[in-house]
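re: ur question from yesterday

yeah so i grabbed the chain u mentioned. its 207 aa long if i counted rite. heres the sequnce exactly as i have it in my notes:
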Amino acid sequence: MEVERKWLFNDMEACNILITRDEFIYDQAYVSVSPEFRIRRKKRIHDMKYTYLLCIKSKGALERIEIEKELSKLEFEQLMQVGDIKEQEFIKKHFYILSIGKYELSIGVVDLHTDNEFIYGEIEFPTVEEAQAFIPPDWFGREVTNEAEYKMANYWKKTRLGTKGVVAEGINNQLTTEEVKYLRKIREAELQKERNIAMEDHDWYGM
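ran it thru and got these structure tokens back, copy pasting raw so excuse formatting
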């Protein structure tokens, strides 16, 4: 079970106030957003070796079921194929791990140097009671624990899926049947274009 609160930050001032214990680079993507089925690779900032992880999460805000398993590089790449995930689609994160009292504060810079860049912080707690009792310092930003748009699965849908995501989530988003059909046609045209390019490449290399 994961018990976690999340806040937005305007800058990296937290790293000047607290001691940074560790730094990581994360790349993550979603094979599925409903249910939430995430793959992630991570490494320490000055390390060359990646760890590959699969994480499945339930719906929820403060408290969610979380199942996490380590993957081999091959399994990770196979799940990229299952989810039709391209390398350029991964969400990029630079994580700073800091200590705040007895807790660990993770500050994440998401998609640095892009139009979507933002900074957030999160703390995991052993119990819901401890999470609710925690009083954040004044320099913490706005809390977004209960704001759906700041869940990374929703950020993935918004910034990565394009027409793929709209078609997949069309019914949940209450699109009309005709709208869903239209978007499916657009997606099929995109897929056909990709197939044509792949065939051209195959013919070229086969010459």
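noticed a couple things. DSSP finds six helices and nine strands in the chain. also Residues 14 and 139 are 8 Å apart (CA to CA).
anyway ttyl
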